[in-house]
Specification:
The chain is α/β, with parallel strands linked by helices. It is about 60% helix and about 10% strand.
Length: about 375
């Protein structure tokens, strides 16, 4: 039995080595694709091409008796690496005549990410850091674009210092709050203005499938090239008004981060054995625990700024607190009928999205389970 098992394992190892060789060949081809895309200004992410390729490979897998979901999982992971590899080829520069781009706060993580992408696209990039304000006039005098990438609580005060920009200079910010910074930019600068919110962190390997929200400010024709440059990087654009953006972020960011913060505080106060919690966890709870823990591995100032950035955030959190209290009253009364009625109302609000999210989360949970290492 041992000899037979050893022989089969050797054969599996041989197949695995062939898979590694094939993946190496695929990545080499991707590098060539990246060069062609860079030369012709094509986006690194082509959703139609990706969807057609996945559908074709799923059909081929089913014909050979291979689970279609398996080949899709393998290909999606491979494509994620491919998008990152394509970055190394650089990107076509859509505005080669642009004067230098200055990133205010360019020594921060997000500023460094945009510095790298802009440099890969052939633009000249300068950084105006917190220690450089005595040379600000020198750094900014010939700027073709200025990007403000500083902490939320500093954004408007920093924008107020940018009153002497060239008239045709494009002024933009990367803040997760839009109404205040956008209005501040419009007041301090008479040229083109756009508000930007990258919906991702600075640790991403590629902008493929990432979202950049933009809020029109002034002279939109002057920054269409920039929006198109984002698309070449692989990003998806979402145009929205500053007011609507901030209303959405109240739920997407402020309330979500606050509930994670409170849950983390609660865990720390209850002080359970974290290793024991993890050993008992199903994939979904482990994933939830990971998302809470992720918050506390990052900058407290950033998340405090996001949560406390607007009165509407506090008002929303208070309404959530009120509904939480109403739900507790339901539990105290052991009112299962009221629970089921509320459950049904929420299910109806989600509609078809409920089944969609169920299927989507199952895929995420499979991935979370795959990455789990249990001690023997």
């Amino acid at each position: 039995m041992v000899a037979e098992l050893s022989k089969l394992r050797d054969q599996i190892d041989d197949v695995d080595r062939q898979m590694v060789e094939l993946l190496a060949q695929r990545l080499a081809l991707v590098e060539q694709v990246g060069v062609v895309k860079s030369q012709h200004g094509l986006p690194i992410y082509a959703p139609d091409r990706e969807a057609a390729m996945l559908a074709s490979r799923r059909e081929e897998a089913e014909r050979k008796g291979v689970p279609a979901d398996l080949i899709e999982d393998v290909l999606r992971r491979t494509m994620r690496e491919s998008y990152s590899s394509e970055n190394d080829s650089g990107f076509k520069c859509l505005n080669p005549e642009l004067r230098p781009i200055v990133i205010v706060g360019g020594n921060g993580q997000l500023g460094k990410l945009f510095n790298r992408l802009l440099t890969l696209s052939g633009y000249q990039v300068k950084v105006l850091g917190s220690q450089d304000w005595d040379r600000a006039d020198e750094i900014l005098h010939d700027a073709g674009m200025v990007i403000v990438s500083v902490p939320i609580h500093l954004t408007e005060s920093v924008i107020a210092k940018l009153g002497n920009l060239p008239e045709d200079c494009l002024l933009a910010d990367l803040t997760s709050v839009k109404s205040g910074p956008l209005q501040a930019m419009l007041e301090v600068h008479k040229g083109p203005v756009v508000g930007l919110h990258p919906m991702f962190g600075p640790d991403i390997p590629s902008l493929a499938k990432q979202v950049i929200v933009y809020c029109d400010g002034r002279n939109p024709e002057s920054y269409q090239w920039l929006l198109e440059q984002f698309q070449i990087w692989g990003a998806t654009l979402n145009r929205i008004s500053a007011i609507e953006h901030d209303q959405g972020m109240t739920l997407i960011q402020a309330l979500r981060h606050f509930t994670s913060f409170v849950y983390g505080v609660h865990l720390a106060e209850e002080d359970p054995k974290l290793e024991q919690l993890m050993s008992l966890s199903s994939p979904i709870y482990r994933l939830e625990l990971a998302m809470v823990g992720r918050l506390f591995a990052q900058d407290a100032q950033l998340y405090g700024d996001i949560i406390m950035s607007a009165p509407q955030n506090i008002a929303m959190i208070k309404r959530f607190h009120q509904r939480f209290g109403e739900a507790i009253e339901m539990l105290d009364a052991q009112d299962k009928e009221a629970f089921k009625q509320a459950f049904g109302q929420v299910s109806g609000w989600f509609g078809d999205y409920a089944e969609h999210f169920l299927a989507e989360s199952q895929g995420l949970l499979r991935q979370a389970n795959d990455s789990t290492h249990r001690k023997a």
